């Protein structure tokens, strides 16, 4: 019974929503705007050489920071 009442209520709302008429028409003024797209490309032929540092010693600060060990990584005793 509850489902039949909700279906009838939804149909009633749909019919009343369609029965309403819009009384005022909205007129929109359009404005034309021209868009100018200019694209310039600069080609840089200069080659830059960058040097990457390689740390060979185990006690270097950066290598120690990158190889950090958390408590979850440690082995657990059974």
What's a quick, concise take on this entry?
Helices cover 31% and strands 0% of the residues.
Draw up the topology in text.
Blueprint: H1 2-19, H2 61-66
What features would you describe in this structure?
The structure is a single chain. The chain is an all-alpha fold and 78 residues long. The protein is built from two helices and no strands. It is flat, with a radius of gyration of 36 Å.
Task: Specify the structural class.
Answer: mainly alpha
Summed up, the helix count is 2
Q: Residue ranges: pLDDT <50 for 5 or more in a row?
A: none
Average pLDDT, rounded to a whole number, is: 77
* Largest β-sheet summary: none
> What order do the helices and strands follow?
HH
Overall helicity: 25-40%
Which word captures the global form? flat
Computed over alpha carbons, the radius of gyration is: 36 Å
Residues in β-strands, percent: under 5%
Would you count the extended β strands for me?
Answer: 0
For the record, give the distance between the C-alpha atoms at the N and C termini, rounded to a whole number: 63 Å
């Amino acid at each position: 019974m509850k489902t039949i009442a909700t279906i009838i209520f939804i149909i009633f709302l749909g019919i009343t929503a369609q029965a309403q008429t819009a009384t005022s028409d909205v007129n929109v003024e359009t404005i034309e705007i021209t868009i100018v797209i200019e694209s310039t490309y600069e080609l840089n032929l200069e080659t830059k050489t960058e040097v990457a540092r390689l740390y060979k010693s185990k006690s270097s600060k950066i290598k120690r920071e990158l190889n950090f060990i958390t408590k979850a990584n440690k082995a657990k005793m059974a």
